[in-house]
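Continuing from the previous page of notes. For each protein in this section, the sequence appears first, followed by its structure tokens. Read the first protein now.
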Amino acid sequence: MDEKKLKKAEPQDERGQTSEVGEWVTAIVIGFLAGPFLFTFLKFVNEPYLKWLEFLLVALFYRFYIRRKTVRISKEVKEWIEVFVFAGFLVLNIRAFVVQAYKIPSGSMIPTLEIKDRLFVSRFNYWKKLPKRNEIVIFIYPQDKKKDFIKRVIAVEGDTVRIINKQVYVNGAALNEPYKIHNDSGVYPFAPQNPRDNLGVFQVPKDHLFVMGDNRDQSLDSRYWGFVPHKNLKGKALFIYWPFNRWRIIK
């Protein structure tokens, strides 16, 4: 009698395992298809790794809440999973919404930022507002969405800008810029193909910024490729944390 019951139970276990796998496959497919779509309203969340987080959240939500399915695991393993999931979720959200670390790859912001400086950037400053003049910002390079640039805000929406022989004028007044340097004593006359030292009068459009590097003669900035739209902003530079002897608040 017991042997008959045992033989009957075996096919049920196999069907149960098959059903379990099918449920997970369904959850993964739904997460992959629906995750990015459901989270498109988070316009400021454009990091590639967050696409995986969106997929995971939707898949788990479908699996455990909609389908009411659970996984039979030991209490100890469950506790470790909870620790790793919570830590990963916390780290991802801190990076996405609070602060993020960056490494300076070029010398366009010398002397304020040196090559290989590592700094923390605030991620939430500009969700609802534009930065102020002189703030140093991280943004998506308008001509290549895969690159992030860091520059100083020189003018904001509505400002008029002009450059005469390396001197920047905003709203008709010459800027006092103790942070900038010029390594080339030569001055190029105004020309569309080389606006480094001279640039005609123009006005910054609404919800845009005019930015420049502090290393003026060696910076690819708004003089060459135009304005930065508000939607491209990723954060405000806060302070250098490495190397340790350069630790400082960024101004």
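Done with the first. The second protein uses the same format. Note its length before scrolling.
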Amino acid sequence: MVMLEERDDHIDRYLFITGLGKRGYYISRIVIPAFGALAVTVILLPIFGLTDLSFLEIFFLALAGTLQGIIIALMVIRLSSNKLEGMAITKLSSLLMLGALGPYLMPAPLYFILFFMPSFWTGMAICEKNWLFMLLSLIAASIWIFVFEKKIATD
């Protein structure tokens, strides 16, 4: 929402022409906070023992969540032109998380219609106890990020 406010106030244009540039602006507003949250999650979750998952499992789940957050942030920035549209798209973007329920609620061959959602592969990894599905989640998330990042770069 900060980025949308900066866009509404035309501040972002001034930041784009500084040494930061457009790419640096997006990295400072989206990527750095996301990976800061990843670090905090990976450090604090094992300390407080909220789950019996291994460190590697926690890391991959936190990484998938971080990438999902980046996807949502890029989606909101790309698809909305003001704060009101941004709030509506933020609410709609929560539908991307429903993919995680596919392996639990849908019959076996039918749930693969959700293959394009990174959260689906995260759900598969948890449901099937096969952490190789996390690789597919990371690949799907990378594709989403690449598509939205390219659309932003062309604006």
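What the second structure shows: Helices lie at 2-8, 12-16, 21-48, 55-79, 83-93, 102-105, 118-128, 133-154. The longest helix spans residues 21-48. We return to this in next week's lecture.
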